[in-house]
């Protein structure tokens, strides 16, 4: 097999000259022939001044390079786009597929025998894994690692579950402006990803479970020296994989590996976004995520990880308790241990190496779970023919069966304008409905599903209401919130038919979400809907590609032409 610089040579009839040219140019960087004749490990650079979560990427890159060279191969760092949650207008999800395309094409375009992708902020690991799966080169993933926790007045703070909680206190008048400013400086005390079980942590745990990263790599805090050593080792492993040619993502991502990932997603109380990303990753293989099977796993798999927002600890505590290897050990026969990993062996080896930590309470045993059922349930009903999701582990138990009057917001903007209006006709028993916030509608399915409780209700001490939308929600949020209603309203899904005053019934036990309006009336309303058309924002460029080809949540919100044919 052709390796190193000779890979992907476009010869136009004279391969000798093509290689000669290639070497002539790269030698401008000062490389020797000895360096250029070795197998190459590409390393993505997603450092950006806009991405504090990736603040340690330069140090990790140095460590990976060291590892690659210690193993006798040649590291080549190349840039791809970087996506940080706070600086991704209109939404980070809108950019995920762009990053996946960028990463995939640069892996293909440049000669490399293996690749190390370093990412972490919510959409980056999914994008990089989607790319790696499609390029199918031996790949080691390195999550940048979670932030360490913050402290305020004797309380532990975490981004960004406590961002919302503290802001809620401020909105309710419980803390003043001076205090909220102090909190603002303490919520994200180091580089790294949000240290609660948000999307970043969820995807890092899923990556480790899929065998795409080294054991413990999901949980080692970003600023720890152990993270740097893990990066060095990842570099070494990538160099070995560059020589042997495997394992490739296609060898690791088996149906059993995807099942393991879904078990872990439920057991960690993971982010609902994790399901969309896992679906997108699977759709780039010949395998699929089946929502009904995922829901069934939710009934069988207990939540074992006591992390915010479902529980009380943070990622560093999960790490010191034994991390994902210990979790998989506790999950026992729910995990298929024959799956291979980039560490060289199987999950059986990973689990065998799990550390015993006396007295730890972040990872529970199966006979003493946080909740006997998993974190998420898939709902269906006349409001969500292709499904919706609820993270019931982070919901109010008394609202899991609830019928209430709909209070409809037409869009994120409409909600922003009206939700705190003292004249808004709303009570705590109502169901807040947000629409036009799906993949096409918003665009990019913003994390707007965590509709704020109207201020006048908040002031009465009510902290939760049933809220439903076609949007996503940050994995760091808490509440009785139905998300990803599919099809979305912008493509004529039934959510578009709801009117303020209609009754909506949520029944999580029965896995139902229904609009209690008779069929005849719904048909009339459906007929009266405006015909879908291309909105102004989608007239040109990436926005156009996005609008024309984005799939719904149940298909992972990837572009329809990126999907690989399934085996079903
Ligand atoms: Fe980057 Fe939370 S903002 S992981
Ligand atoms: Mg997030």
Automatic annotation (TrEMBL):
Signal peptide region: none
Occurrences of domain Dihydroxy-acid/6-phosphogluconate dehydratase N-terminal (ranges): 38-349
Protein name as catalogued: Dihydroxy-acid dehydratase
Family classification: Belongs to the IlvD/Edd family.
Domain Dihydroxy-acid/6-phosphogluconate dehydratase C-terminal positions: 362-557
Any GO molecular function: hydro-lyase activity
Record key words, sorted: Iron, Iron-sulfur, Lyase, Metal-binding
């Amino acid at each position: 097999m052709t390796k190193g610089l000779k890979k992907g040579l476009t010869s136009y009839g004279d391969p000798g000259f093509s290689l000669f040219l290639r070497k002539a140019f790269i030698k401008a960087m000062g490389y020797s022939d000895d360096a250029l004749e070795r197998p190459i490990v590409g390393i993505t650079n997603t450092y950006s001044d806009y991405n504090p979560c990736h603040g340690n990427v330069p140090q990790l890159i140095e460590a990976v390079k060291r590892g690659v060279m210690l193993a006798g191969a040649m590291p080549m760092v190349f840039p791809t786009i970087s996506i940080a949650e706070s600086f991704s207008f209109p939404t980070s999800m809108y950019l995920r597929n762009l990053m996946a395309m960028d990463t995939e094409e640069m892996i293909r375009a440049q000669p490399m025998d293996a690749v190390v992708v370093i990412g972490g902020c919510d959409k980056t690991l999914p994008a990089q894994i989607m790319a790696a799966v499609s390029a199918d080169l031996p790949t080691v993933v390195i999550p940048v690692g979670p932030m360490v926790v913050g402290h305020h007045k004797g309380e532990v703070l975490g981004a960004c579950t406590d961002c919302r909680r503290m802001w809620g206190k401020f909105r309710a008048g419980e803390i003043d402006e001076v205090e909220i400013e102090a909190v603002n400086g303490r919520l994200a005390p180091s580089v790294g990803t949000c240290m609660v079980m948000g999307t970043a942590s969820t995807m890092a745990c899923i990556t480790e479970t899929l065998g795409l990263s080294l054991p413990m790599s999901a949980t080692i805090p970003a600023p720890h020296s152990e993270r740097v050593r893990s990066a060095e080792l990842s570099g070494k492993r990538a160099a070995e994989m560059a020589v042997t040619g495997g394992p490739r993502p296609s060898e690791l991502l088996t149906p059993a590996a995807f099942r393991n990932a879904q078990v872990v997603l439920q057991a960690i109380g993971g982010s609902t976004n994790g399901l969309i990303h896992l679906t997108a990753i699977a759709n780039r293989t010949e395998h699929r995520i089946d929502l009904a099977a995922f829901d069934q796993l939710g009934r069988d798999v207990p939540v074992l990880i006591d992390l915010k927002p479902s529980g009380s600890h943070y990622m560093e505590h999960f790490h010191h308790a034994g991390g994902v290897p210990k979790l998989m050990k506790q999950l026992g026969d729910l995990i298929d241990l024959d799956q291979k990993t980039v560490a060289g062996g199987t999950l059986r080896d990973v689990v065998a190496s799990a550390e015993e930590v006396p007295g730890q309470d972040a990872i529970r045993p199966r006979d003493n779970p946080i909740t006997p059922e998993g974190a998420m349930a898939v709902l269906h009903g006349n409001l969500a023919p292709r499904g919706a999701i609820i993270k019931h582990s982070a919901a109010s138990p008394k609202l899991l069966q609830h019928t209430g009057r709909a209070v409809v917001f037409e869009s994120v903007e409409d909600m922003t304008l009206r939700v705190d209006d003292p004249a808004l006709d709303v009570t705590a028993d109502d169901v807040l409905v947000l629409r036009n916030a799906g993949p096409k509608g918003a665009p990019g399915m913003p994390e707007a599903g965590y509709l704020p409780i109207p201020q006048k209700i908040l002031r009465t001490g009510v902290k939760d209401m049933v809220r439903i939308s076609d949007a996503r929600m940050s994995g760091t949020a808490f509440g009785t919130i139905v998300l990803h209603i599919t099809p979305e309203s912008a493509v004529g899904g039934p959510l578009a038919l709801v009117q303020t005053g209609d009754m909506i019934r949520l029944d999580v036990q029965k896995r139902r979400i229904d609009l209690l309006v008779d069929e005849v009336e719904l048909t009339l309303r459906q007929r009266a809907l405006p015909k879908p058309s291309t909105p102004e924002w989608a007239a040109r460029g990436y926005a156009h590609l996005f609008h024309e080809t984005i799939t719904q949540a149940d298909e992972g919100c990837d572009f329809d032409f990126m999907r690989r044919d399934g085996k079903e």
